[in-house]
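Protein 1 of 2
SEQ + STRUCT:
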Amino acid sequence: MLKCDSVLISDTSLYASGVPTINYGLRGLCYMEVKLTGPNRDLHSGSFGGGVANPINELAKIISKLVDKNGKITIPNFYKNVKKLSAKERENYKKLRFSDRQLEKELDVKELQGENGYTTIERLSGRPTLDCNGIYGGFTEEGAKTVLPSKATAKISMRLVPDQNPKIIAKEFAKHVKSLAPRSVKVEVKDLHGGLPIVMSLDDYAIKAAAKSVSKAFGKKTVYTREGGSIPIVVDFANQLKAPVVLMGLGLDTDNIHSPNEHFDLKSFELGILSSAYFLKEFSKQ
């Protein structure tokens, strides 16, 4: 029932507006939750501050130690199985002529940052990362309430690259966080979600057919890039269906993905219809 010749997915992005793009790789994901508990209840910060550990303060200290000043993740063995970017891949990144200044302008930041030794575009899709996605605890409403909180929680995600395994990384992360926490707080670490990274061969016929199809639809030469995000089921499709996966990106990085007013450009939608039709015709020639 699941027999197929290829899997076509359009859940990735165009390199830029109007530029036909084939994504040939996805980063994996390791998503964790860290909860610190200090006293058995919220306390008055005046009466107890200075004598009892504050879980928010301690959690902030832990998070600050997960990445060093050079942008390297400090978890032991984190980079042990990282597959290095090949010379060919790094050369392909150069051909894309990515603009740091344009990204700074779009995001309204004064400078970009990340792992030393790599360009911004390499860091965005070809290297592993660690980010705190949310942190909460204590009093967060309007006004003032001087509490020393009982609990503090953070959500932390790591984007992984071949050949990192999210289950192994999750265990190493948990051990590292617990080693950084003082005895004055209890630590609970949960593995909430994970997914494997994947990189597809550009020599596969399905990908070649897709590249021809989007080039015809857009009227421009197709570019190839790796996606910084994760689609965990792609690995399952590739392994279980034994069929090539084509990532025909159609979204834009300006679509406010995961933010308020997320949207999709109608022109991209129309070009996607054409690209899909051309792909069916081109791929059937096999």
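Protein 2 of 2
SEQ + STRUCT:
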Amino acid sequence: MIDKHILIVGSGSVGKRHAANLHKLGCSISCVDPREDRIIEAAEQTGIQLRGGFKSLEDAFEKFSFDGAVIASPPVYHVDQSIQCLKSNIPVLLEKPVSANLEEAEFLEKEVIKSNVPLLLGYTWRWWPSLLRIKEMLENAAVGQLRHVTYVMSAHLADWHPWERYQDFFMSNQEQGGGALLDESHWIDQMVWMLGSIPLEVIGKVEKISDLQISSDDNVDILATYKNNVRVSLHLDLFGRPHEKSIKFVGEEGTLIWKVDEILIGKSMEDEWERETFACDRNDMFISVAREFLDIVNGDVSPSCTIHDGVQVLRIIEAVRQSSSTGVTVKLRPM
């Protein structure tokens, strides 16, 4: 692969990960971060000889041209930084969520369409092998007509970045776009991706209920209604131990359970399950995202996770927020 110069915008945890993976795939790397110490830290921790380190996108664009950019900053900066890259004709890999609110996400979607520059959205669990397998099984009606799906993501925030105080992590800050609903919208995206559309209606509660010292939400419960009498419940929290990520699909002909590296399927009244296991490293899905992004940069493929997908997730998030504040069920129109 011809050397590509990729700009990493935001050199925190996920920015470092993208930098290391893209460098491993043969790219040269520059970083943008308002904190010089974070740029130095990124170079030291990844072992990459950066081509450049900059405090702003403007400084970076004055010095170099870039083949692609990864936006890995807090969500409140996503839209402005993405637009700056699009206007410079630079393909973008945008970390989820698209933005902190629907209005900005819809504005960015219009800018992507207008610019005709590709943007890949990083809902990385779409590239996780066992979830790809689950999607295939559902498409083949492995448990018949679905009736109920349960998503659970429970993980204590203090365990996420043990090298720093969780109070200093953007996830703790509502103004920066932190919180369970936005950051763990992976699972809202998974719901839409798995079931093929947004729900007909949602009712939800978004709260801060734990003793965590944060200004963002730490507990989310959603009930979504789909056509064909399919119900989905989704729970997200930032205080659970042990950590849990699981999905349970209950159909007319059996039950399918996903547990990160294992899939179980049961079709009898007894507690008997067929198991399929997977040997994956968490970084594997990020490598897969990086490979697709470089294929997009080369003009070989179009993004598989698009800005429109991200806008659909934000539509659901806004509906859940509305429901939480009013206590009523909110209907969603297909788009």
